[in-house]
């Protein structure tokens, strides 16, 4: 009996919410539109952040330590070092490159410009070296320090400061993105609050009567809350469609027509679905916040 | 039923609504509140249904100190009080029956209960034939009777009427007062704030007179006592 009553009550809330949406259809549409615009910008920012993170992660994982051996160290002595290097905590992969291989690799990279090597008079200017990758980018500095301490090493190169710079950049991108998104979210809340305030104001007499008749604050609140949530949700649906379509078209163009994923764009479907969910959830929440905020005064709670 | 002990009430703007009022209204009484405008009649009614809070003193309703009521308990207090205002406060886009049913809907009553109670309340006020009319199609007296039906549909033990005849002609006013009197005979306590000298003088009910926030007179079978 109790549950039956609650379901009926909930039906009443939904009916009231849609009645009011219908009654103020233009205003509702306008606020759904503003939610959509805010969320489109939120979505675009999210995509930028996701891609920056993606790019940063790729760059970070590409950081490799190159450790040059002293010319006085023979190849046999050098290869024996491998075990020792592998023993350094944080090291993932160790590859020894002897100077002849290094020269060949260099040749390949030079392609048409072999004459640059000929200018050196046929001698090999390259040292024997180790290429070391670490388990995580944070280990680079530590591992490099250890390598530098080895007597056999001439020089250790890992694009000093590169990793740190990258970290600061990604941190900043995340922070700025967060600030931008919070501000836009706030703007959306205010817009929805204004819309619901119109509805609430138009029905203030009804609210006054409901209060006088002893209905609970939540009973009064629910229809407005649902109204705000519906507005927020529909705005979010529009935003998701626009953002996804635009992004798919963009990545399609980059990958298919230019045959070249130059920026290393994230095209993971699951990522897009998650982002869509986040946007729908955010839209609905914004709607709920907006309507609750606009009702405070009328409910005097 | 209603028990005020040294109640004072100051509005935030500094206006003094009530000063040290002690008043006891028993179950089943019919009480007129009289006094000039601004004497504190409305403040008293607002305090009883907890629209306002006493600044000092105790205000007990059915033994419960309503000054200490938590916000979530206020709706339950109001469900035990029927309220009638001078301006009826009906919803213009609902029919007569829907307006009365609204009182039960907003407290989440059962549908069957609503279907039974609404016609009964409309019969009590003599408007069973107008249940599908809109408020705008009714006279002022009829609208006030709808408001009374709405106030009693939930069978509250107490009905507060704040100048219910203020907008009505003398003849219609009498209809309303007689209706309230009938409701009182069924055991409902009635507190009615009014300016209507004729009605108060002829009804010979208890009269509580307020002036400048204080009770200046409290008589059984009293008279209005002011020259208008």
Descriptive report:
The complex is a heterodimer of chains A (301) and B (228). Chain A has 301 residues and is an alpha+beta fold. Chain A starts with a helix and ends with a helix. Chain A has a four-stranded antiparallel beta sheet with strand order 2-3-1-4. Chain A has helices at 2-23, 25-62, 75-86, 99-110, 115-118, 140-149, 162-202, 204-212, 217-257, 269-299; strands at 64-69, 91-97, 129-134, 153-157. Chain A folds into two domains: 7-59 and 164-299, no CATH class; 65-158, Alpha-Beta Plaits (2-Layer Sandwich), CATH 3.30.70.3040. The model of chain A has no long low-confidence stretch (mean pLDDT 78). By secondary structure, chain B is an alpha/beta fold. Chain B has a six-stranded mixed beta sheet with strand order 6-7-8-3-9-10, with helices on both faces. The interface between A and B is medium-sized, with 20 and 21 residues.
In short:
By secondary structure, chain A is α+β, with helices and mostly antiparallel strands. In chain A, 73% of the residues lie in helices and 8% in strands. Chain B is α/β, with parallel strands linked by helices.
What does the secondary structure layout of this molecule look like, with pairings?
The complex is a heterodimer of chains A (301) and B (228).
Chain A: H1 2-23, H2 25-62, E1 64-69, H3 75-86, E2 91-97, H4 99-110, H5 115-118, E3 129-134, H6 140-149, E4 153-157, H7 162-202, H8 204-212, H9 217-257, H10 269-299
Antiparallel strand pairs in A: 1-3, 1-4, 2-3
Chain B: E1 2-10, E2 16-25, E3 30-34, H1 41-48, E4 56-61, E5 64-65, H2 74-79, E6 81-85, H3 96-105, H4 111-124, H5 140-152, E7 158-162, H6 170-185, E8 189-193, H7 197-203, E9 206-211, E10 214-219
Parallel strand pairs in B: 3-8, 3-9, 6-7, 7-8
Antiparallel strand pairs in B: 1-2, 1-4, 4-5, 9-10
């Amino acid at each position: 009996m109790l549950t039956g009553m609650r379901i009926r009550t909930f039906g009443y809330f939904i009916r009231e919410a849609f009645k009011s949406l219908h009654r103020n259809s233009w205003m509702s549409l306008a606020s759904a539109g503003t939610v959509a615009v805010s969320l489109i910008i939120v979505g675009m920012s999210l995509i930028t952040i996701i891609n920056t993170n993606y790019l940063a992660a790729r760059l970070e994982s590409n950081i490799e330590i190159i450790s040059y051996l002293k010319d006085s160290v023979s190849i046999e002595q050098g290869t024996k070092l491998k075990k020792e290097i592998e023993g350094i905590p944080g090291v993932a992969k160790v590859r020894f490159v002897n100077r002849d291989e290094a020269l060949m690799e260099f040749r390949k990279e030079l392609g048409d410009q072999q004459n640059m090597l000929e200018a050196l008079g046929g001698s090999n200017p390259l040292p024997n070296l180790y290429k070391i990758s670490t388990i995580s980018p944070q280990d680079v500095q530590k591992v490099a320090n250890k390598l530098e301490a080895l007597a056999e090493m001439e020089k250790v190169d890992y694009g000093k400061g590169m990793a740190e710079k990258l970290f600061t950049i990604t941190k900043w991108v995340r922070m700025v993105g967060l600030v931008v998104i919070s501000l836009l979210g706030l703007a959306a809340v205010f817009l929805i609050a204004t819309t619901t305030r119109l509805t609430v104001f138009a029905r203030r007499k009804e609210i006054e009567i409901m209060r006088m008749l002893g209905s609970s604050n939540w009973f009064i609140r629910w229809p407005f809350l649902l109204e705000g949530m519906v507005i927020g949700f529909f705005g979010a649906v529009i935003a998701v469609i626009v953002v996804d379509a635009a992004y798919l078209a963009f990545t399609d163009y980059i990958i298919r027509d230019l045959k070249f994923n130059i920026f290393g764009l994230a095209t993971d479907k699951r990522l897009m679905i998650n982002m869509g969910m986040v946007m729908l959830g955010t839209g609905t929440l914004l709607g709920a916040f907006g309507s609750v905020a606009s009702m405070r005064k009328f409910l005097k709670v | 039923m209603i028990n005020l002990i040294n109640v004072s009430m100051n509005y935030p703007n500094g206006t003094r609504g009530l000063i040290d009022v002690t008043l006891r209204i028993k179950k089943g009484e019919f009480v007129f509140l009289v006094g000039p405008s601004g004497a504190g009649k409305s403040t008293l009614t607002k305090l009883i249904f907890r629209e306002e809070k006493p600044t000092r003193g105790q205000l007990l309703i059915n033994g419960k100190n309503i000054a200490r009521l938590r916000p979530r308990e206020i709706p339950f207090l109001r469900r035990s009080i029927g309220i009638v205002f001078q301006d009826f406060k009906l919803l213009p886009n609902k029919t007569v029956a829907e307006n009365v049913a609204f009182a039960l809907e907003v407290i989440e009553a059962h549908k069957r209960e609503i279907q039974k109670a609404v016609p009964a309340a409309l019969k009590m006020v003599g408007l069973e034939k107008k249940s599908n009319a809109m408020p705008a199609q009714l006279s002022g007296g009829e609208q006030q009777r709808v408001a009374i039906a709405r106030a009693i549909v939930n069978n509250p033990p107490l009905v507060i009427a704040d100048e219910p005849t203020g907008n009505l002609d003398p003849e219609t006013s009498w209809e309303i007062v007689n209706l309230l009197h009938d409701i009182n005979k069924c055991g409902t306590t009635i507190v009615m704030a009014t300016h209507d000298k004729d009605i108060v003088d002829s009804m010979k009910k208890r009269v509580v007179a307020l002036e400048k926030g204080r009770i200046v007179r409290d008589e059984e079978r009293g008279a209005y006592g002011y020259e208008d």
